[in-house]
């Protein structure tokens, strides 16, 4: 089982030791899509959602979430999250959340970007669920990563 980086020789979960790695600049972008019914999209566009500014709250929630990723994922490293942007756009069938995280550290920020996108999407659902309980999140996924030992990657 030693081929798995997060398992020790006995097969027990462990946090990978990155002490000897040199910090490098790294970035990752992830997205999530919140599928919404037409009346919810209309309310988002005209600003009439009773709970307030959905998009602003989602952006701030995503940024806060990126910084708390190691609290949620037990094997994630505590790293310096040096930059986070969360873009939230209303589309005809819902809300697209795109989150980009940057660091200059020993390990990547893919999980931080995915956490930011996921929590921002959850906040959209929380704020519109009174209008439509069928609102759902789909397609939470990594779009790209830059830097680190494995190099750059982009979803095709």
How does this model look, in words?
The protein has 4 helices and 5 strands; from the N terminus they run βαααββαββ. The protein has helices spanning 38-46, 54-67, 69-72, 110-128; strands spanning 24-35, 83-91, 94-105, 136-146, 153-154. The chain has a 5-stranded antiparallel sheet with strand order 2-3-1-4-5. A hairpin with a 2-residue loop joins β2 (83-91) and β3 (94-105). α2 (54-67) packs antiparallel against α4. The protein is elongated, with a radius of gyration of 18 Å. The model has no long low-confidence stretch (mean pLDDT 94).
Kindly report the average pLDDT value: 94
- The CATH architecture is 2-Layer Sandwich
Ends apart, CA distance between termini: 32 Å
Please give the oligomerization state of what you see: single chain
Which percent bin holds the helix content?
A: 25-40%
* Major sheet: 5 strands, antiparallel
Structural class: alpha+beta
The tally of helices reads 4
- The succession of helices and strands, N to C, reads EHHHEEHEE
In CATH, the homologous superfamily goes by the name Molybdopterin cofactor biosynthesis C (MoaC) domain
Strand percent estimate: 25-35%
